[in-house]
Amino acid sequence: MKERTIKKNVEFSGIGVHTGKKSRIILCPTENDGIRFVKNGEVIPAALDNVKYCDREITLSKNGKDIRTVEHLMGALYACKIDHLRVVVEGDEIPALDGSAYPFISEIEETGIKELKSKKRERYIKRNITVEDKGCFASCAPAKKLEIHYIISYDHPLLHYQEYIFNGKCDFKEIAKCRTYGLLSWKEELNKRGFALGASEDNTLIYTDNGMLNEARFPDEAVRHKIVDFIGELYLFNPIPIGRYFVFRGGHLLHFQLIKEIKRSENGIQY
């Protein structure tokens, strides 16, 4: 398979789910140098070394220029198999749109995708790796195809147990339609910390104490969205390390810890 970019510029604008501020991004085709973000003239490659923060979001940073919440866009670029792209960012955060990766995918496909001359590289996990944190864990193992088995569990009747396996047999777009989510009881504390200031029923699946404020697109939408986040974060280590992943009660920080361990394990990766 050949590497790919888009045929022409495509723009997105809206508010950030965490900042609550308006932002605009312009995706521009390039034929080399991978995926790069540009903010106020500063070029920030989409790479693990540029991850500044990974608690409730993934923030990329370089020389004091921050770009928040890149994971949904990165998941969309993986879905569209985009290898090279310049993302010009006007604002502090990637627009939330509807809270999923799907609007990005839809617009990119409508804009058109260009195949390049270079052949795609592949990277494979070669040994088992596990990271743990307070009863949560994430692991990877060798496999010929990408598989992600994810389980979430919260103290909530609708989120007590959700499980999903992504193994390439299902259409990734069905996962990409799944939105970011949160419990209404989290909002006050998150807002104090500068998160979820732009969260609403328009861009977030919101759970109340015993039910929901808005309607889920799938019964297991929350865990599906976790896979979107995870793939978006894996794509910061492009090409994605192919293997079998299992995540139990994970989050951005645990994902990042696993990906860093994969990167550290030079003997565990084969090109």
Keywords:
single chain, 271 residues, alpha+beta, Ribosomal Protein S5, domain 2, 2 domains, five-stranded mixed β-sheet, 6 helices, 20 strands, globular
Describe this entry's structure for a reader:
The chain has 271 residues and is of the alpha+beta class. The protein folds into 2 domains: 2-119, lpxc deacetylase, domain 1 (Ribosomal Protein S5, domain 2); 123-270, 2-Layer Sandwich (lpxc deacetylase, domain 1), CATH 3.30.1700.10. The protein has helices at 71-79, 102-111, 172-176, 187-192, 221-234, 252-264, and strands at residues 2-6, 10-15, 22-29, 35-39, 42-45, 51-53, 59-62, 65-67, 85-90, 113-119, 123-125, 129-133, 136-141, 147-152, 162-166, 181-183, 205-207, 241-242, 244-248, 269-270. Strand 16 (181-183), helix 4 (187-192) and strand 17 (205-207) form a beta-alpha-beta unit. The protein starts with a strand and ends with a strand.
